[in-house]
Automatic annotation (TrEMBL):
This is Mitochondrial carrier protein CoAc1-like. The gene is LOC111454466. GO terms for biological process: transmembrane transport. Belongs to the mitochondrial carrier (TC 2.A.29) family. It comes from Cucurbita moschata (Winter crookneck squash). It is a multi-pass membrane protein.
């Protein structure tokens, strides 16, 4: 070891011993605005949670859109079929687009919720500080996040909707279940959709999405905070309590708004060859609901809901655990403090 390397090592060790390195880290983290910390925590938590449940999300989309070969299958049979024909990678088809979408979506959703909530408490004290504030702030935050990231959700759905058989045949080629455009990644989807219909095409299905996300996002935060209010004080900071309340809130919100999610998915894949015998998939949300009930039956409005029930618990659990851990690491002030400060303003 030469003298320069030795001096550098000594300096590093000395810095570790006297805590100067830790001080620099503390200084950098503490210099970040709270809203930036909320963006980082929310985005990372969303990415972890979405990847964990990606296989179930893929199957849900296949059932919602009545993809050929999956109409009459259940959850586990569909999982086996995807594994057989596409391998493990088939479970994550469209997950890249999903994660690219969910990171900014979750980041914006959490951050906007906190900021909207503080803004309401600061500017409209007459509204009080109950869980109804969470309903209002959560709804507006959900709408904000959807409008900013919807084209990525459209790309995720189109990629997940594609079905191909990757088993090798004698000719050395591949077989597919039906002829349909095969997109090559997120950028390809966005460019081809835009070239075919402009900005309006990138937002096809945004109507039912907003109609569904406004009550869902609001209900999720409302029920979560309402349930927490009935938990004894000594258990308020328990991560198990947070995960349990969050899971129940997610389940309730999904059940109420799920039919609109089915409408959204079918509208998103409306320009792709379908298995609905030439049925037109366009139109507004109300028209699409009537078509689904008339031609596919009311049960189709809840196609894939069982998967949502299966995936919502681990998704919420992972999301909340990651968000809470990152909030602690980033030293984001506890929500109770933010609420009290805002209420006093």
């Amino acid at each position: 070891m030469n003298s320069s390397q030795g001096s550098t090592l000594s300096a590093n060790v000395a810095g570790f011993v006297d805590g100067s390195s830790a001080k620099r880290e503390v200084s950098f983290i503490d210099s970040l605005p709270v809203y930036v910390k909320e963006l980082i925590a929310g985005g990372a938590a969303g990415g972890f949670a979405k990847t964990a449940v990606a296989p179930l999300e893929r199957i849900k989309i296949l059932l919602q859109t009545r993809t050929e070969g999956f109409q009459s299958l259940g959850v586990f049979q569909s999982l086996r079929k995807v594994l057989k024909h596409e391998g493990v990678r088939g479970f994550y088809k469209g997950n890249g687009a999903s994660v690219v979408r969910i990171i900014p979506y979750a980041a914006l959703h959490f951050m906007a919720y906190e900021q909207y909530r503080c803004w309401i408490l600061n500017n409209y004290p007459s509204l009080g500080t109950g869980a109804h504030i969470d309903l209002l702030a959560g709804s507006v935050a959900g709408g904000t996040a959807v409008l900013c990231t919807y084209p990525l959700d459209l790309a995720r759905t189109k990629l997940a909707y594609q079905i191909s058989d990757t088993r090798m045949v004698k000719s050395g080629g591949f077989r597919s279940y039906h002829a349909q455009p095969m997109y090559n990644g997120i950028r390809d989807v966005l460019m081809r959709v835009y070239s075919g219909g402009g900005v309006r095409a990138l937002y096809r299905g945004v109507g039912p999405t907003l109609t569904g996300i406004l009550p869902y996002a609001g209900l999720k935060f409302y029920v979560y905070e309402e349930l927490k209010s009935h938990v004894p004080e000594e258990h308020q900071k328990s991560i198990v309590m947070r995960l349990s309340c969050g899971a129940l809130a997610g389940l309730l919100g999904q059940t109420v708004t799920y039919p609109l999610d089915v409408v959204r998915r079918q509208m998103q894949v409306g320009d792709m060859p379908s298995s609905l015998n030439g049925e037109v998939r366009y139109g507004n949300s109300r028209e699409r609901l009537r078509i689904i009930v008339r031609n596919q039956g009311w049960r189709q409005l809840f196609a894939g809901l069982s998967i949502n029930y299966i995936k919502i618990v681990p998704s919420v659990a992972i999301g909340f655990a990651a968000y809470d851990s990152l909030k602690l690491w980033l030293r984001i002030p506890p929500r109770q403090k933010t609420q009290s400060i805002s209420s006093a303003a």
